[in-house]
C-alpha cells in the first residue's frame, strides 16, 4: 500500500467530502456529525487552496482516506496559533497515516508562521492522544463535558505543540 500525502486541491473535494462525512458519522471523533454540503465544502477548499492553507490529504490510488488541517485563529493577538483538525477512515487507521498527515501539516503550518498548534481531543480517544503525544503535543487542560452527543457528555483534552 502506497499512500500519498499531498496538499488539498479542488479535485479532492468529493473525496474529502466523503471521507469527512464518514468520520463525522461515526459520532466519536469530531464535533461534526456530518460533512458540510458538498457545494459549501468546495468553496472552502477553493479558498484554502488560494490562501495556501496548511491542509493535506492522504490518497490511496487517488481516493481520499484521511486529512489534516491547521487553520490560524483570526484575531491579531492569537493569529500565531493554529487549530488542528484531522481524520482517517476506519479501514486505514493504525498504519501510520495519521503520523504522516500530522508531520506534513505541522511542517507547512510552522513554515507559514504558526508557532503554536492547538487541538481538542475526546478524553476517551486514547489512540489519538498517544499519536499526538508521540508528535510532541502536551496536555494543557481538561475541558469537562466539552462534547455532548446522543444525550451523553464527554470530556476533552486541550493539547498544544509549540515551535521551538
Descriptive account of the structure:
The protein is built from 4 helices and 7 strands; from the N terminus they run E-H-H-E-E-E-H-E-H-E-E. With 164 residues, it is of the alpha+beta class. It has a single domain, classed as Gcn5-related N-acetyltransferase (GNAT) (Aminopeptidase, 3-Layer(aba) Sandwich). Helix 3 (97-111) links the parallel strand 4 and strand 5.
Name a few traits of the molecule:
alpha+beta, 164 residues, single chain, 30% helix, Aminopeptidase
State the gist of this model.
The chain is of the alpha+beta class. 30% of the residues lie in helices and 37% in strands.
Give the helices and strands, then pairings:
Layout: E1 3-7, H1 13-25, H2 38-50, E2 54-60, E3 63-72, E4 81-88, H3 97-111, E5 116-122, H4 126-134, E6 138-149, E7 152-162
Parallel strand pairs: 4-5
Antiparallel strand pairs: 1-2, 2-3, 3-4, 5-7, 6-7
List low-pLDDT spans.
none
Q: What is the overall pLDDT average?
A: 96
Radius of gyration: 15 Å
**Assembly status:** single chain
Indicate the CATH class: Alpha Beta
Number of strands: 7
Order of helix and strand elements from N to C terminus: EHHEEEHEHEE
- State the fourth-level CATH superfamily: Gcn5-related N-acetyltransferase (GNAT)
Distance between the termini: 34 Å
- Across the major sheet, the strand order is 1-2-3-4-5-7-6
Q: Count of helical segments?
A: 4
Strand content: 35-45%
User: What share of the residues lie within helices?
Assistant: 25-40%
**What is the structural class?**
alpha+beta
Biggest sheet character: 7 strands, mixed
Number of domains: 1
Sum up the overall morphology in one term.
globular
